[in-house]
Design brief:
7 strands, alpha/beta, 304 residues, 12% strand, 5-stranded parallel β-sheet, two-stranded antiparallel sheet, 10 helices
């Protein structure tokens, strides 16, 4: 991720990147391949053998500083098929272990269609959820459906967790304080937690990320070197509103996350559910862009 931010990369990075290919996790592999293509101008994709053979041929030029990507022959190879990623809402991402972080505020109960929010919703209505649910499902209903699709398709070796963000947020739906395999019991418990969420709380986005890190084996209260922990991804459904936590402005929250994630390397896919372009948009975009994740505004229910 750091190398991708560099404007001009020394071709000598080719050798460590090629050596890293075969041990790279599903999350680490895509940026590694993008860097190799950018440095060398080759189109080998996920074909480690082709990269090794090419490097053997051009190693002397690279080490002597004479390598010029614009003058070398562009070659292609048949890439090794990659496994499908985990799909949640509009985001498909490679991951071995992830956490859903879901805002548990009253926003869960509002329609998932932004046009319905703008024209029909009134916070002081009585029984509004029942009135609109038949025509336009609430975010809570849509999240439940999307989680059902995601969890039912998970490979058994993939670990997952769930945090429902409230004033006192839940760190684990089964109180085991760790990531779990997608067994029938664990999936049922996670879906039941979303289905029965009271939609009455709130919590800062940063508190949710810290909780997810703890759940995934990355202690949020230490800056020491981290052991190999399973967590690599967060699917974050939130308004992005910074109010209520330890950081009260969008800029301070994003900056705090960048410091926090410098060595933890968690990819955050930020899915924002709010109808206004407010401070939350800055927060959610910042979380995604600074961690290599995707930002999506959930303005309409998914068509799938």
């Amino acid at each position: 991720q750091e190398l991708e931010r560099v404007e001009k990369i020394d071709p000598k990075w080719t050798e460590p990147l090629v050596a890293f290919l075969e041990e790279a996790s599903p999350v680490e592999l895509p940026p590694c391949l993008r860097l190799l293509a950018r440095i060398t101008n080759q189109k080998f994709g996920n074909a480690p053998k082709a990269w090794r053979e090419w490097l053997d041929e051009y190693r002397a030029e690279i080490e002597s500083g004479k390598f010029d990507r614009e003058t070398v022959e562009v070659r292609e190879a048949t890439p090794v098929p990659a496994g499908e990623g985990v799909k949640f809402y509009e985001v498909e991402a490679p991951t071995e272990a992830f956490v859903f972080v879901i805002e548990g505020s009253t926003r869960l109960a509002v329609p998932a269609d932004v046009d319905v929010q703008r024209t029909k919703i009134r916070w002081d209505w009585k029984g509004t959820r029942r009135q609109w649910e038949e025509e336009s499902p609430a975010h809570q209903t849509v999240i439940h459906g999307q989680m059902t699709r995601t969890l039912s398709a998970l490979p058994q070796e993939t670990l997952f967790g769930l945090i429902l963000l409230q004033a006192r947020f839940t760190l684990d739906f089964l109180d085991e304080k760790k990531l779990l395999a997608p067994t029938t019991k664990h999936v049922r418990a996670a879906l039941e937690m979303i289905e029965k969420a009271p939609a009455s709380g709130w919590c800062s986005p940063m508190e949710g990320i810290r909780g997810a890190a703890r759940l995934g084996g990355l202690d949020p209260d230490t800056e020491l070197d981290f052991p190999k922990a399973p967590l690599d991804t967060i699917f974050f459904v939130d308004s992005g509103d910074p109010a209520g936590g330890r950081y009260l402005t969008p800029e301070s929250l994003v900056a705090a996350f960048q410091r926090f994630n410098r060595f933890r390397r968690i990819t955050v896919h930020a899915l924002r559910f709010c109808n206004a372009k407010e401070a939350g948009e800055t927060v959610m975009k910042g979380l995604a862009e600074s961690s290599g994740g995707q930002y999506v505004w959930l303005s309409k229910p998914p068509t799938e």
